[in-house]
Write a structure and sequence with these properties.
The protein is of the alpha/beta class and 422 residues long. The chain has 13 helices and 18 strands. The protein has two domains: 2-252, TIM Barrel, CATH 3.20.20.70; 298-420, no CATH class. It is 26% helix and 22% strand.
């Protein structure tokens, strides 16, 4: 499990499409980032990934990496890669468990890439960084933001990436936010046209190629629906912005699935929909509902960890481990906390068959939940019910909630199945 920490929004590139363009002056303090790394460890994450802006610009980078390693965490970076063109820095980071790098490259030549990032020699440095990382970092992805300037040159980017067999490449649609909003007409192609060009590249490369796509509605990616890529497919569950004091679950609140035509689409669960800014500017006329088998009506939460012991359901919300440790990092739908025989268990739903809102509705409003064995077969007839500790809790409106079970076997760590009412 990965936790993403934004350290600030300063950057040694000046990308035309930068979605934090108006926040470049904001920087998290070194101590605050240090504290958040510790918080990630306390919450049970196995990796902390620093992002920005550009995290490698910060003088504290090696200290943060060392701190993460000292807590038993793996370390990762979301970066433009320019500082990683210095092999000595990569060597030092590898000593502190650098395992994941997500690096940006937006063209196959300096003429395209440097124009988009508005920085001299950026392309050369980024390519050198990839050379320094291939074969040394376990999980390496290059991301190409698709704009009007490079949409007709994506095959060249794929060819460049193919020279590195261990490199994964994803094509991500530009967001109409920050620079993408200010220069919308100059930067943002029609999403249907961009999706078609990406689809052509993926089809030409074949299933064996390490290519994927992000932020494109799945109805526009026929034959490549399964190759979508986002924070969740990379194992991220929580993140924190530079000006936030705690972690929040990864979500898609900057995107929309319009009721017309998305409400009846068979792909609605995993589909990212449209960026809200794009929908406001151009609407949803390029989308179409995809027909298919009836969508599932049940989802499963898998055992994650035991987070507390000796819990008394009647002791009130002050004794609740979720309330005590902080409610914001936990997803209201996808996380499930169960109290049974004095133990509190944490479960997680990774399903993409239903949307986040639908999963939350199954759990909190219109569905029923039962304990299940490893295969998903119910273990008890009575559905799970909300804990008495939730009554009167001031955080109830935004908390994932605590549920109780009378089944003593739950203390051993089981799963749960939820079914939405038809």
């Amino acid at each position: 499990m990965k936790a993403l920490v934004k350290v600030g929004y300063g950057c040694n590139n000046n990308c035309l499409f930068c979605h934090t363009l108006d926040l470049r002056h904001v920087a998290g303090s070194a101590d605050e980032v240090h504290r958040k790394i510790g918080r990630a460890a306390d919450l049970g994450y196995s990796m902390v990934v620093l992002s920005g802006g550009e995290p490698t610009m910060r003088r504290e980078l090696l200290g943060w990496a060392e701190h993460a390693a000292s807590l038993g965490l793996d370390f990762g970076l979301v970066t433009n890669g320019r500082m990683l063109s210095y092999r000595e820095l990569v060597d030092r980071l590898l000593e502190h468990r650098l395992r994941y790098v997500y690096v940006s490259i937006h063209g196959a030549t300096a003429a395209v890439h440097d124009r988009l990032v508005r920085a001299h020699d950026a392309f050369e440095q980024t390519v050198r960084a990839i050379d320094n990382l291939v074969g040394r970092v376990e999980d390496l992805t290059a991301n190409c933001v698709v704009t009007r300037q490079n949409v007709d040159h994506l095959a060249d980017v794929a060819e460049l990436a193919s020279t590195q067999s261990e490199l994964r490449l994803t094509f991500s649609f530009v967001e109409a936010k920050g620079g993408g909003r200010e220069l919308f007409e100059q930067l943002v192609p029609d999403v249907s046209y961009a999706a078609g060009r990406v689809g052509e590249v993926l089809a030409a490369a074949g299933e064996g190629a390490r290519l994927s796509h992000g932020a494109f509605p799945l109805c526009l990616m026929p034959g490549a629906e399964h190759r979508y890529d986002d924070l969740r497919t990379h194992g991220f569950r929580a993140m924190t912005e530079a000006d936030e004091t705690d972690f929040f679950p990864v979500d898609d609140l900057n995107r929309i699935q319009p009721e017309d035509p998305c409400s009846g689409c068979a792909l609605r669960g995993p589909c990212p929909g449209l960026y809200r800014g794009y929908h406001e500017a151009r609407g949803s006329g390029e989308l179409r509902a995809v027909s298919g088998p009836p969508r599932v009506t049940s989802v499963r939460w898998d055992f994650d960890a035991q987070v507390a012991a000796g819990f008394d359901d009647s002791a009130g919300h002050a004794a609740c481990p979720i309330f005590r440790d902080g409610v914001t990092p936990w997803d209201r739908g996808r996380h499930l906390f169960i109290a049974a025989s004095g133990a509190v268990l944490r479960l997680y739903c990774a399903s993409r068959d239903l949307t986040d809102a639908e999963i939350a509705r199954v759990k909190l409003e219109e569905g029923t939940m039962q304990l299940a064995d490893a295969s998903g077969l119910p273990l008890q007839a009575a559905p799970l019910s909300r804990s008495r500790a939730c009554t009167g809790c001031p955080e109830r409106h935004r908390c994932t909630g605590l549920f109780v079970s009378s089944d003593a076997s739950a203390a051993a760590g089981v799963n749960a199945v939820g079914t939405v009412n038809a």
